[in-house]
Amino acid sequence: QGLFAIPAVPGVPVYVTTGVTLGAVGEDYLGSFPLAMLWAIFVAFVTKLAACAFQQKVIGEQMGNSVWVKATVGINSQAVKAIRLILQRPGLDKDKVMILCGGPDWPTSVLTGILRLPYFGMMVGTLPIVVPVAFTVVAGGCMLKTDQGGIWVSMGSLFLTLSALSLGGCLIGAAIAIENKVSSHREEVAQLPDDAEVKTFDDLQAESLARTRAAMAWAGLPLWVRAVLLAAWLLMYISFIAFAQFSDVCFEDVGVTTVYDEEPLNGNVLNVVKGMVGWGALAVHGVSLVLWQIFRMWVKNK
């Protein structure tokens, strides 16, 4: 649930991981892969609803006065104003369900709390998300069986396709609902007042960004700063080439279905790195990050 509270974390990796982990444990415990998948779907779905509840009741309602929270939601943007008008309509309709299921948890669930919308109605409108959640969880579970070949490879591809179609359909439906509201009720959207504190915050952020961009202009950089920046770029480029083109030399081949206590990890996550080549590539990347941070600190103090 905690991962859903982070704005940058999407739900798909959580659902896939749930299918893999609970699929493996559940099959051993329940003695049936289909039952394990049903259990994994239930857990993933309840986790999704719990995350939505947490974002609405805790982040939205309890922290909704925070300027940072409102700015992160984008409360003054045209899109979020359109979402506000859709969600504040009484009852449930297609557009509201599409927003609740297809819109990102940030800003959707947090916005429902900021607006003090009824909790039960928001949860009911989110229930159809069980369909794409189920497809994604089963796609993750099928990864456990791909080494058996046969139908499992096809099943995995099928459920991945169904997952992409259902999640994409929800996202497109939400985008269409927002666009229709903005285009057909432009005056109503424009009449919603901006949050003064957020507008001031956004203006300050824009001014800070403009100053940062001016300070980063190549022509105005001292020679030593240029050297630091070029070294950071070169070392980062070298490390990326090593990671992308020579990954089999730098790292062990692991995935979400790799058993932690077996080869190649043997109970130690650091075993994913192969010898001096892997550690050397990581060291080069680490030095590039240190140099980049030095450059950022210089720009900040400029």
Please describe what this structure looks like:
- 73% of the residues lie in helices and 0% in strands.
- The longest helix has 34 residues.
Topology:
Blueprint: H1 12-30, H2 33-62, H3 67-73, H4 78-87, H5 94-102, H6 105-114, H7 119-126, H8 130-142, H9 151-184, H10 186-191, H11 196-215, H12 223-245, H13 247-250, H14 275-300
Helix pairs in contact: 1-2, 1-8, 2-6, 2-8, 3-11, 4-6, 4-9, 5-9, 8-9, 12-14
User: Largest sheet, described in full?
Assistant: none
Radius of gyration: 24 Å
Strand content: under 5%
Shape: flat
Question: How many beta-strand segments?
Answer: 0
Mean pLDDT: 89
Roughly how many Å apart are the termini?
A: 40 Å
Helical stretch count? Answer: 14
Give me the secondary-structure category: mainly alpha
Order of helices and strands: HHHHHHHHHHHHHH
Features:
73% helix; 0% strand; 302 residues; disordered N terminus; flat; mainly alpha
